[in-house]
Amino acid sequence: MKKKSVHILAIESSCDDTSAAVLENERVLSNVVANQKVHAQYGGVVPELASRAHQQNIVPVVDLALKRANVRKEDLDGIAFTQGPGLLGSLLVGSSFAKSLSIALNIPLMAVNHMQAHVLAHFIEDEAQKIPPFPFLCMTISGGHTQILRVSAFDSFEILGETIDDAVGEAFDKTAKLLGLPYPGGPLIDKHASQGDPLAFSFSEPKTENPLDFSFSGLKTAILYFLQREQKKNPDFIHQRMDDICASVQRTIVTILMNRLKKAADMTGIKHVGIAGGVSANSEIRSTLRAMQESDGWTTYIPKFEYTTDNAAMIGIVGYLKYLNQDFDREDSVASSRLDMEK
Ligand code: KG4
Ligand code: ZN
Fold this sequence. Notes:
This protein has 343 residues and is α/β, with parallel strands linked by helices. Helix content is 42%, strand content 19%. It has 9 helices and 10 strands. Strands 3-2-1-4-5 form a 5-stranded mixed beta sheet, with helices on both faces. It has a 5-stranded mixed beta sheet with strand order 8-7-6-9-10. The chain is globular, with a radius of gyration of 20 Å. The model has no long low-confidence stretch (mean pLDDT 92). Bound molecules: 5'-O-[(R)-(carboxyoxy)(hydroxy)phosphoryl]adenosine (KG4) and zinc ion. The site of zinc ion (ZN) has 6 residues, from helix 3. The site of 5'-O-[(R)-(carboxyoxy)(hydroxy)phosphoryl]adenosine has 19 residues, from helix 4 and helix 5.
């Protein structure tokens, strides 16, 4: 029997990207993302400006997502939105819009956890990615989170390790700031690193009590002192050695991440390993993970690029799964800046 076609509109507004997507079951028909350029000049996301930009973007972004999908709003079966975690003012724009539209169209509403969505982006049906079996390990690496999770079912997550201070995306972005690169600096470090020598400089790997936990704040301080020392000797140091500095910092970060992930795989015996979140766009992380297929016998899962950074398609896949389970939310559900994954 042919599966019923379910159309879900999804809205993501947790940080500085306004995004809307339309899914037909597990497939993405459209995924529109409006980036907010306004933050680059401030070296980081300014929450007040982010919510204001979401207000400006949300209607045209949703409109475009429906047009590209060739779906009328009357044909929608449900609406999914990001409930949290994220910036409260930003979340309120998306959640209020989603609630109003669900009331107007009289269709179910699904509140989605942003971090769960990063992980379940693996379950979007797309020729460019493969779907992991349960249980699998997922290293979720973004601007706000760094976690290694054992994923046993769509709604069953266990945190095996996480950062005790900065997220890995912050490590990239703060290093970029020290180097005078604009926000978000992660992609720029990646770009410079591709031209540099990763062994030019070395930074030590931080120790944590739980061997699967991460710590990045010490690395930032080490890089700051290193740059100050070198600039005393040569004021043009950063400019002259940008590629080598970026390659060395990136190698250090990737080594920290992969050592923890390898330990988690050894400890659990799980050989299906994926990555998720904005930092999984990083080219060295992607190539190192691919290499682990050979060296460690892993099967690895890397989401398509557009489903790694913040996007509404990943909210849509969770919305669809919740829709199938009739796990609906009420109009009085509230946005929340903190949301627990393990609940
Ligand atoms: O998941 P995401 O889009 O937003 C959050 O939920 O945080 O992740 C954004 C983070 C930023 O810190 C950005 O610098 C980083 O992902 N990022 C990268 C790359 N592309 C994005 N970091 C390193 N290399 C990249 N190619
Ligand atoms: Zn994210």
